[in-house]
Every structure is written in structure tokens, then in C-alpha cells.
Request: fold
Amino acid sequence: MFVIIETEDGLTIVPQPAGCTAEDVAIRCNGTVADEGPYVDFDEAQDALIALQQDDFDESEAEGRI
Reply:
């Protein structure tokens, strides 16, 4: 299982060990949960990450920050 977190370096995909919550994983990585999924495989998480990045881009463009 995988989750998407945000760290000071940006959005990233990290494995979610059995028995851990998305919040546990984010805390271990010094980040916050961006999308708790969980995603069954890396490719599925990658698709979700791309969608999140596109949403952020679209919002920035709409606000005139680009």
C-alpha cells in the first residue's frame, strides 16, 4: 500500500506498512498527508500524484499566480 505525503521537498509517494496509518507514515517522513489513499500499487499512487499536481497547477493558474 502507498500514500501521498507532502514534505518540504514537495509531494511524494511512500509505502504504508501494515498496521500504520497514513498519519504515522507522514510523521515518520516529517510531512503531512496529501492523499491517504491507500493505493494498492505504486502506479496507482503515481496517477493520483499527477492528478494532485495538475489540480494544484489549475488552481494556481486560476488565481493568476503563474
Observations:
- The helical segments are 22-28, 42-62.
- Residues 55 and 61 are 10 Å apart (CA to CA).
- The beta strands are 2-7, 10-15, 32-39.
- The mean pLDDT is 88.
